[in-house]
Request: fold
Amino acid sequence: MASPHDRSRKDDEDDPVEQMISRTGCAELHYAVQECMAEHQDWRACQSQVRTFKECMMSFQNARKEQLRKQQPTSTESAAS
Reply:
């Protein structure tokens, strides 16, 4: 039987959450959390994996916010035009 975390599965390709996480660059950390949870059946045993995944996601979100902020004209720029 295939592992539930086999990344070659077709249904992962159709899962919008999997697609979103893969775009963040944090997918491997997400899988590490899932594998830990499958092994221990207790999220408390997986705090280091959860923390690392959370930090990766926060970094991605902060970079994305900065990118969007740079794309928007400031109020002084739009008032001048």
Q: What stands out?
A: Residues 8 and 46 are 24 Å apart (CA to CA). Residues 24-72 form one domain.
